[in-house]
Amino acid sequence: MQIEVFPTKDEMGQEAAVAGAASIREAISARGSANVIVATGASQFEVLAALAKQEDIDWSKVQFFHLDEYAGMSIEHPASFRKYLKERLVELLPHPPSAFHYIDAEQDCVAECERLAQLIQPHPIDVAFIGIGENGHLAFNDPPADFETNAPYLVVDLDDACRQQQLGEGWFPTFDDVPKQAISMSVQHILKSTKIVCTVPDERKSEAVQRAVEGPVSPETPASILQQHSNTTLYLDSPAASRLQAS
């Protein structure tokens, strides 16, 4: 795992987008197409805005896969990750991607996991844009995360710390409004990505960053497993890096 620290969120997001875009171009050059995982949430605001502005990418050769979504979430809800990705990425691209595989968790979540698995399994992931939660989660794999399953997607329970983060970021009016379950890409499938671009801003995530980087690899800190991925770069702003010994 490599670590890059930047003074501001904008610089952090810009450099993360540049690195990810380079991987997309390389895949298109080598194979004629690229497969990309994208995350949502406050940590990805600057990254996705900068990614949509990257030049010399033929987006018609890029296929996107959605990382996670709340169970029962309508696409019209302000907290919908499908809505987020449409507005903050897809509609900002100069031309449409070859495909964008959204997670539809409004109905049968188990069946949706199976549908998504069939879509993603034939496609090697060239780059994954992800973040780390305040509780150390990776996607919606809250602690203790399942490090063993090879299923690409699974239905997960959201712990109170995760749900409190969603409330604190302003996505829901009350704690009780935050869903208790979600569909998430599994830890093992995230790790299959050739390159992982992990972006984490804000002091409120500094403890999780410290545990993920300097602590043991443990399901109690799901993001710690990124220590075992040889091509992961952690992009931090200064507050998020403030607890690291090397910062």
Estimated structural class: alpha/beta
With strands numbered from the N-terminus, the spatial order across the biggest sheet is 1-10-9-6-2-3-5
Instruction: Estimate what percentage of residues fall within beta strands.
Output: 15-25%
The CATH topology comes to Rossmann fold
The CATH class, by name, is: Alpha Beta
3D structure, described in words:
α1 crosses α2 (45-51). This protein starts with a strand and ends in a 10-residue tail after the last strand. The longest helix is centred in the N-terminal third of the chain and has 23 residues, at 9-31. The strands form 2 sheets. The protein has a 7-stranded parallel sheet, sandwiched between helices. It has a 3-stranded antiparallel sheet with strand order 4-8-7. The protein has helices spanning 9-31, 45-51, 81-88, 109-120, 160-168, 187-191, 206-214; strands at 2-6, 34-38, 62-66, 68-70, 99-101, 127-130, 153-157, 181-185, 195-200, 232-237. It has 247 residues and is α/β, with parallel strands linked by helices. It has one domain (2-237): Rossmann fold, CATH 3.40.50. It contains 7 helices and 10 strands.
State the gist of this model.
The protein is α/β, with parallel strands linked by helices and 247 residues long.
